[in-house]
Amino acid sequence: MDPSQLSGLDLSKVPSHAIRPKGVPCVGNKADGCWWSCDQCKAPTDVSRCPGPKQWGLTFDDGPSGNTTALLDFLDQRNIKATLFIVGSRVTDNPDILRRAYKAKHQIAIHTWSHTALTSQSNEQIIAEMSWTQKIIKSAIGVTPLYMRPPYGDIDDRVRGVLAAMGLKVILWDRDTNDWRLNFGNPTNYNPAWISGNETKWIDATVRGEDNPITLEHDLTVEGIREAMTVIPRITDAGISVLPVGECLKDSRWYAEDDGSELRTSSAGAISSAISSTCRSERGWYATVGLMAVYTIVMFVL
Ligand SMILES: [Zn+2]
């Protein structure tokens, strides 16, 4: 990793829970360190719902991909903004799509560099996953995201400690659309109609004031985006405000460059004009950063 990524970080308060190698099962009903992957344990600092009333935090993970463009077209047509959790390594191929999303006032957030399970990573590897993703996003849009979501929801108190030291806010979800299952061609153990049925329940609960969900969706596959296009109009038609998470939280600091003085809104977001002309179309630079980050992460894995 770049040693400068460690400078200024105080890791003294990071709990010392052991690294959990991928595939290690959760034993019993509880795990130490509030390990979400074991028992869906959430810490008080994990955000998984909007404060309401009648709010719906709309989030998409795993882009930017070639399919993200169709989603952005749809959201533009309806003037709906979302939070997009970005996989850093995918920015190398799709910087223009990320730039378009930012200009359209969607909230840009972090979803690691390599989409790895963070509890399987050392503290230094976690920092590298976050820092390289922040760096490539800043190179594309000029700002540094402060919101993140762990892939697979895989987080425990050690990971939370590292992320807190970096000043990052953890966003989980309380409603999983399971849209990623659509990509498997309607397997016998999954019925696509369940998504629609679940969404109907969530909409009804939100209208009744019993829920203000943050939903988990993906902009990686055609099937997932098609499902979002079907469901989102039903949410707005029910009178529910569909918002980026940062907006439903009334948080004025989505990015490190924000001075906190201006509240972002979907209709009049305080989008910085920081997209530097020097950052445009520098694909060679992206390739260099990508290779350096992969090299760094591989070095720590080995
Ligand atoms: Zn993901």
Automatic annotation (TrEMBL):
GO terms for biological process: cell wall organization; chitin catabolic process; fungal-type cell wall biogenesis; polysaccharide catabolic process. Its cofactor is Co(2+). It is found in: Cell membrane; Secreted, Cell wall. It catalyses: [(1->4)-N-acetyl-beta-D-glucosaminyl](n) + n H2O = chitosan + n acetate. InterPro entries: Glyco_hydro/deAcase_b/a-brl (IPR011330), NODB_dom (IPR002509), Polysacc_deacetylase_ArnD (IPR050248). It is a lipid-anchor; GPI-anchor. SUPFAM superfamilies: Glycoside hydrolase/deacetylase (SSF88713). Its main location: membrane. Residues 54-243 form the NodB homology domain. Keywords: Carbohydrate metabolism, Cell membrane, Cell wall, Cell wall biogenesis/degradation, Chitin degradation, Cobalt, Glycoprotein, GPI-anchor, Hydrolase, Lipoprotein, Membrane, Metal-binding, Polysaccharide degradation, Secreted, Signal. The keyword Transferase does not apply. PROSITE patterns: NODB (PS51677). Its EC number is 3.5.1.41. One of its GO terms (cellular component) is plasma membrane. One of its GO terms (molecular function) is metal ion binding. It comes from the Eukaryota. Pfam families: Polysacc_deac_1. Belongs to the polysaccharide deacetylase family. This is chitin deacetylase.
